[in-house]
Structures are given as structure tokens and as C-alpha cells.
């Protein structure tokens, strides 16, 4: 299969490569038998090595930082996997799903329906690649081509999403790519579409505050990447999902990356003198919508 992913799809391939690398670790937190196949099928060159080294201390510093980044993807993937398992809901929506393989590799409850929404190019590539691999989903899976910054909710309903039913929402690696305005609009849409008892697991956007120091850092980043500064500034002062969901009556809790390091025994640094993982990560939010009130 030739390379058929570009733009944001390249990021999805890089995440799949990180999952493949995680799966190769002797202490792996995630077993994804399809990730490496997806990377090869994409034809996209990714910076991650194919095998986990015997000793992280022995690899060059640049490669070491990539390996730690892959370790974070492994930690993030396992945490969200566990949230979906413990939630036990039969309707789930993965927004900005990329090359996610949860529909195939998780043990879903009977009657589970999983909706994956992403760019049409990414969705099409995943469909073709998994079909070529002979992979069969472990649930009823619906791929929904769409853009979360446009009118996506109607597409979800058309695909069979059941309004009013408890839903488990997954926002993984998505909010950091959206403006603060679009982040808030997306959270509002999730609230509006959720039935009583719905759940959400959200990877937060790092909290960039618009200060002179932030502008200086963003100007440097803009010069290095070619991304316009005004686009970067639209990502400052993002909404706090805990506050947004809490105001809507959801019970929302913050989950720090350092807490996940302890939970899974996975340090995202070489030694204790390095900066804790929370310094450069947004962390996560888990939330539960209020249950349906009994009729009087």
C-alpha cells in the first residue's frame, strides 16, 4: 500500500509507531499487534526506532528523548484503555481517532458500538489497512469522516449514534491542536450530546497563558516551524475541562502524569534529577455525567 496519509495523518502514524515500540518493550503497558503494520503500510518515515533498546542510558540523547516520548504514548494509551474497560459503557466515541486500534484490541462488552471520528483521509487509510490485515473489530465499529471544528455532531447521529444513551468520550491528543475557542466548543458539544451517566477521558492541552514570556517562546517556535504566531496565540488560555464539565454538573477530576507514572511504574525520565513529566504535559481529566433522576 502506498503512502496515503499527509498533514495531521503523519502525526497519527507517529503515534502508531510509538505504540508499536511500546508493544516491543519487555515491560510493555500496551499490546498492539497492528501498530507496526499500520506504520509500514503508511510509507511515512517516523523517527522512532523499531525495537526498544536494552539500556536507555546507552542511546544518543536525541533518540533518548524520542524513546521517552514513546513511553508517554504508552502510558497515555494504557490509562485510556483502563478507563474504557472500567467504564463498561456500550457506546463510545473517539474524537480525533487517528490510527486508533481500540475497536480491534480491547475486550468490549456485548453490544458495544464504537464511533471513530477523524479526517476522511485518515479514516479511509485505516479502513483499508485493517481490512488488508484481515482484522475483525471486537465491537460494532463506525468510522465517521469529519472535522471537530466543523459541524460533526450531525454526522455522528447519522452514523447511528444514539442520543440520550450513556456514552464514553475519548479526547486523546486532540485538544492541543485546537484553538482555545474550538476546545470550548468541542467540550460544549460533548456535554450536549451526552446521556445521563456518560463518561469522558480527556487529554488536556498544556496551559499556555498569554504573557510576554509566552509570546517570546512562541515567536521562537514560530520562526523555527513556520507556524504563524497568531495561530499559536489562539491556543493560549485554554478552557479548563474540569471547570467546563463541572459547571455542567459532571463530576470531573484531574489526573496528573506523575500520578500515572507511579500507578504503572513507568518513569518518563532517565533519573530523578530530570524535570518531572508534569512540567511539559497537560495531564488528563476524567469525568462522569450525573445519573438519570428517578421519576417522582
TrEMBL record:
One of its GO terms (biological process) is methylation. Pfam families: LCM. The keyword Magnesium does not apply. It comes from the Bacteria. Keywords: Methyltransferase, S-adenosyl-L-methionine, Transferase. One of its GO terms (molecular function) is methyltransferase activity. The keyword Transferase applies. Its EC number is 2.1.1.-. Belongs to the UPF0677 family. Exhibits S-adenosyl-L-methionine-dependent methyltransferase activity. This is S-adenosyl-L-methionine-dependent methyltransferase. The lineage of its organism: Bacteria, Bacillati, Actinomycetota, Actinomycetes, Micrococcales.
Amino acid at each position: 500500500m502506498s503512502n496515503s496519509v499527509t498533514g495531521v495523518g503523519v502525526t497519527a502514524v507517529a503515534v502508531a509507531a510509538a505504540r508499536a515500540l511500546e508493544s516491543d518493550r519487555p515491560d510493555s503497558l500496551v499490546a498492539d499487534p497492528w501498530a507496526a503494520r499500520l506504520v509500514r503500510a503508511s510509507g511515512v518515515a517516523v523517527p522512532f526506532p523499531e525495537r526498544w533498546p536494552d539500556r536507555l542510558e546507552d542511546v544518543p540523547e536525541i533518540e533518548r528523548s524520542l524513546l521517552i516520548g514513546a513511553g508517554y504514548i504508552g502510558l497515555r494509551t494504557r490509562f485510556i484503555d483502563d478507563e474504557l474497560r472500567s467504564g463498561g459503557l456500550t457506546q463510545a466515541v473517539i474524537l480525533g481517532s487517528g490510527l486508533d486500534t481500540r475497536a480491534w484490541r480491547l475486550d468490549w462488552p456485548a453490544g458495544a458500538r464504537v464511533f471513530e471520528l477523524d479526517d476522511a483521509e485518515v479514516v479511509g487509510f485505516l479502513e483499508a489497512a485493517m481490512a488488508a490485515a484481515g482484522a475483525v473489530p471486537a465491537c460494532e465499529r463506525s468510522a465517521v469522516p469529519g472535522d471537530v471544528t466543523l459541524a460533526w455532531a450531525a454526522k455522528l447521529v447519522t452514523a447511528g449514534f444514539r442520543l440520550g444513551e450513556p456514552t464514553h468520550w475519548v479526547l486523546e491528543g486532540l485538544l492541543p491542536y485546537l484553538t482555545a475557542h474550538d476546545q470550548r466548543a468541542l467540550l460544549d458539544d460533548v456535554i450536549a450530546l451526552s446521556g445521563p451517566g456518560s463518561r469522558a477521558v480527556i487529554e488536556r492541552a498544556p496551559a499556555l497563558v498569554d504573557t510576554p514570556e509566552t509570546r517570546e517562546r512562541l515567536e521562537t517556535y514560530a520562526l523555527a516551524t513556520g507556524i504563524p504566531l497568531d495561530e499559536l496565540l489562539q491556543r493560549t488560555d485554554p478552557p479548563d475541562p474540569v471547570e467546563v464539565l463541572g459547571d455542567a454538573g459532571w463530576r470531573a477530576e484531574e489526573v496528573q502524569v506523575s500520578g500515572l507514572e507511579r500507578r504503572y511504574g513507568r518513569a518518563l525520565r532517565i533519573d530523578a534529577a530530570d524535570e518531572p513529566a508534569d512540567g511539559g504535559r497537560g495531564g488528563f481529566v476524567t469525568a462522569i455525567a450525573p445519573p438519570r433522576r428517578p421519576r417522582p
